[in-house]
Amino acid sequence: MDKSLLKLIPYTKPYKSHIIWNVVYNILYALFSTISMLTLLPVLEVLFGKTKIIEKEPVYTGIGDIKQFGSDFMYYKISELTKENSIQVALLFVVLMVITTFLFKNLFNYLASHHIMHLKNGVLRDLRKSMYNKIIELPISYYSEKRKGDIMARMLGDVNEVQNSFFSILELVVKEPLTIIFALVTMFFISTKLTLFVLIFIPISGLIISKIAKNLRAKSLQAQKESGFLISIVDESLGGLKVIKSYNAETNFKSRFNDSVTRLLNLSNSIGNKNNLATPLSEFLGITTIAVLLFYGGNLVLVEKTLDGSAFIVYLTLAFNILTPAKAISKASYSVKNGLAAAERVFEVLEVENEITSKENAVDKNTFDSNITIKNINFKYEDEPVLKDFSLEVKKGQTVALVGQSGSGKSTIANLLTRFYDVNEGTICIDGIDIKDMNIHSLRDLMGLVTQDSILFNDTIKANISLGKLDATDEEIIEALKIANAYEFVKDLPLGIHTNIGDSGNKLSGGQKQRLSIARAVLKNPPIMILDEATSALDTESEKFVQVALENMMQNRTSIVIAHRLSTIQKADLIVVMKKGKIVEQGKHEGLIAMDGTYNKLVTMQSFE
């Protein structure tokens, strides 16, 4: 059994009853498919005046005799009706019998489809939930090497493909094979010679079809990867539209997109050609079998006279009845190959191990009492060393600023404190407890993070700010906005805090977005605040507003400020100057200026008053 198939089984467990009922109704459907064809025999015999006359009501003698008893009882009823009424009533009786069996056949088909629909849709929902939970839980580091578009393609396209294709397996192992088996058993009863003849053709057809289906799975995998790349291009294009237009790079992006679309077209055509071959090929092979049957069976009826004409017609309808499920099986087997390729990609994400998680029996820490100590830490992004033997202590209530040129490792400190990444060596402790021993949620509850890029969501101002405190009242939100120096522009918006701010907050200016980010951190009210270059993307006027907001927020709080603009950190209790992952100077603003070293150079370069 395929590994992907085995991995999918746990997802079907909550829908066990639907699987059982689907199997039951499929068995009944297959049975009535054959019975409905058999009921044509008495119709034909009445029409051709060849009905057996049975005067005496047959007696049931046991299961071994059921076929004979059923046949005799039906002919007895027809004989009775013909005797008491007319041949028309007998004909009406057998026609009603045909209608009833076809009604049951289609009713069971509907009920089987009803249950498989609940199974498919339920598993689709559960797979999507698992995928989304995994996407949210995976560490930030996972996405630094993965394309967002590929993840989206797996979650949307591939999961759908699993739903559409995979459950063809149930039809593949129950419905269609049983329909064929029941029909073949009945055909054996009618004519063993003819049926042995049919059985020679079935494996030959199967062999031809499987040859064509070869390498379909590999092609499907390629197509699904290409879809991921395509979504990535669209995602990046929408995110970077200003840059694309300002650099006149439209042609470049269009050609990247066109190349990808063309590759996808060729793959889809190749897969489609093979899929499209499934039905006509199996039909042609089936009709060839039927044609040979007509010739051979016609001889048995006309020349050898070993087979009755009406029985031969019913035999042919049963042979035709095999064709539909045979076509469905060949189509489903192609489908399953696509589904297996998609499932492989879905489980690839679901099985990624999340290395940054809470330990068992992790410490729940809800207060910050004395200090943060960073001791001899080393850290590298893949093979690129960023921090080397770095140590620092931040006491409660202190504002510590980290400064230095780009690439000196300042922002990495923020990523390590919040456990977006884990240190390679050394320890980071809060009140003497290693953050790796703390519950990751309680660690992040102690911290508020304001980043350089103000990340906002397409929702109301209220929803964006209350992210860390979902039960916040309007008054608390307004209070946080006032501290963040943002209420002055929010109150003028048409719906105030209930105004939708658009995709990524794009209805607002950079300074306004950043002040909302600060309000979000203020409302969360954590004891430790991490400001990662919170003003570097702003113009001077916006920066003044934001700077006031930051100073309001940092009162009576422990703050770690990663600063690019040095004007924002002159009042810090401790300024740590970094270069290539190491501390080169530390002290207060005046003391560092007096040292006339790296800090003084940075200040002079920025030449503020």
From TrEMBL:
Membrane topology reported for the UniProt record: Multi-pass membrane protein
An example of a GO molecular function for this protein is: ATP binding
Alphabetized PROSITE patterns for the sequence: ABC_TM1F (PS50929), ABC_TRANSPORTER_1 (PS00211), ABC_TRANSPORTER_2 (PS50893)
Locate the ABC transmembrane type-1 domain: which residues? 78-338
Membrane-spanning segments: 20-44, 87-104, 180-209, 284-303, 309-329
Primary location group:
membrane
Can the keyword Nucleotide-binding be found in this entry's annotation? yes
Q: Which UniProt keywords apply?
A: ATP-binding, Membrane, Nucleotide-binding, Transmembrane, Transmembrane helix
Q: Which SMART domains match?
A: AAA
Q: Give the UniProt subcellular location, in the record's own words.
A: Cell membrane
List residues of the ABC transporter domain: 372-605
Iron in keyword set: no
**Cellular compartments per GO CC:** plasma membrane
Under the heading PANTHER family, the entry gives: ATP-BINDING CASSETTE SUB-FAMILY B, ATP-BINDING CASSETTE SUB-FAMILY B MEMBER 6
What is the official name of this protein in its record? Answer: ATP-binding cassette domain-containing protein
In its UniProt entry, the species of origin is given as: Flavobacterium gawalongense
